[in-house]
TrEMBL record:
Belongs to the ATP-dependent AMP-binding enzyme family. Keywords: Fatty acid metabolism, Ligase, Lipid metabolism, Plasmid. Residues 18-308 form the AMP-dependent synthetase/ligase domain. InterPro entries: AMP-binding_CS, AMP-dep_synth/lig_dom, ANL_N_sf. One of its GO terms (molecular function) is ligase activity. This is AMP-dependent synthetase/ligase domain-containing protein. The lineage of its organism: Bacteria, Pseudomonadati, Pseudomonadota, Alphaproteobacteria, Hyphomicrobiales. SUPFAM superfamilies: Acetyl-CoA synthetase-like (SSF56801). GO terms for biological process: fatty acid metabolic process.
Amino acid sequence: MSETRPNNSVLSPIGFLTRSANLYSERTAIVYGSLRRSWSELHRRCCRLAAALIELQVRRGDVVSILSPNTPAMIEAHFAVPMIAAILNAVNTRLDPASMAYILSHSESRIFLVDQDYLEVASEALRLLPASDRPFVIWISDDQSPGRCPQGEVEYEQLFVAASAVPVLPLISDEQDPIALNYTSGTTGRPKGVLYHHRGAYLNAIDNILTWSIPKAAVFLWTLPMFHCNGWCFPWSITAVGGTHVCLRSVSAQSILAELKSHPITHLCGAPVVMGMIVEAQMERLERPVAFATAGSPPPVPILREMSGLDSK
């Protein structure tokens, strides 16, 4: 069969957001400290952010970079940017200014969304760039990081006030279009860029659900950095099942323990070091099973044994 419109549907994880907003409109999509947002609210904000980016002259194939911890803004960027066929570049927050400047220049980033926690390193990276290579900067702040936007520059929440309230329809026409650009780090030589396309992100997100048997309304704790391979595509996976994203600005034994006690967490991810944090916190046995996915290096057997004792699988 030919790939005519009646026979072909573009595979993109952007559709997961629209689906969850329609099916689970009042279900909680985002938890972040005292903040709660429903799926309908998240969808509306992503559409407004997409509209704001269009007004800032972001076009198909342009790169929008973001430097942020695991905050609601990071989730929103994973949908709003590709919604307009632009490419998301989630920058490693642990990089030095020179590496960051190289990535911004090499990617030809048009917009740079920066959380206030990284004002110093981002400002230094921007100073290293010639004026012609500097992206337009938008500063992100919230109740957990209430820094002041540099004078004369744009604050993230202002975008939602000025942007059109008319929903932005996804502008994806080709599932082979790039959705995200990621850069290597911790290797010899300069960072190297790797592109995901919409189809690949969609399939990987679905694979996460099938492999891990993620149920509807899963509650996912964001201990895995979203700059790391787009959080292994879990921003899209959890959205597909209408789950809840529990955002975590700072990952520590105390913050993980607090979230596990406060919310019915079902899943979380991270390197073995995160498992070590949980074990060292001497946490009591959990009231319910929690699934933990790890990668990067094999976790030590004693750590696995301790995690199993907490009813983690």
